[in-house]
Specification:
About 5% of the residues have low confidence. The protein is mostly helical. The protein has one domain: Arc Repressor Mutant, subunit A (Orthogonal Bundle). The chain has 6 helices and 4 strands. It is globular. Strand 3 and strand 4 form a beta hairpin. Helix 2 packs across helix 4 and helix 3 packs across helix 4. The longest helix has 22 residues. It has a two-stranded antiparallel sheet with strand order 1-2. A two-stranded antiparallel sheet has the order 3-4.
């Protein structure tokens, strides 16, 4: 079995260089994906509609502590899904068009992760 594994890495006269780029890219994709998932779970892209909101006002609607929500909102802004100006957040154009569940072109008919976990523990 060891020879089969070696043959993947051995090429011609010597070994090919193996780097971690693919793995690094997968690892780097996790935080943005988790931020997106949390935003979808909380309904962040649907709540503000077209208006700008603060972490305090959105936190009150979502029943989420504003300091914790603020970190998520800034994470979503850092990946371009929200725009932020003077501490107020609004959906970026693509998030508004495709992540707002009230819009007809929504890409994600999302069921919150918590609901899936609740169903799993109820059975």
């Amino acid at each position: 079995m060891g020879a089969a594994w070696e043959s993947v890495l051995d090429r011609g006269m010597g070994r090919d260089m193996v780097d971690s780029d693919r793995i690094d890219n997968l690892i780097a994709a996790v935080p943005p994906a988790l931020a997106l998932r949390a935003g979808l779970d909380l309904g962040i892209f649907t709540q503000p509609g077209g208006s700008a909101v603060t972490a305090d006002s959105l936190g009150a609607v979502l029943k989420v502590e504003p300091n914790r929500l603020s970190r998520l909102l800034y994470a979503l802004a850092s990946i371009g899904l929200l725009e932020v100006k003077d501490g107020q957040f609004r959906n970026a154009a693509d998030a508004s068009a495709f992540l707002d569940a009230s819009k007809p072109d929504v890409l994600v008919r999302h069921r919150p992760l918590r609901a899936a976990e609740d169903r799993g523990s109820a059975g």
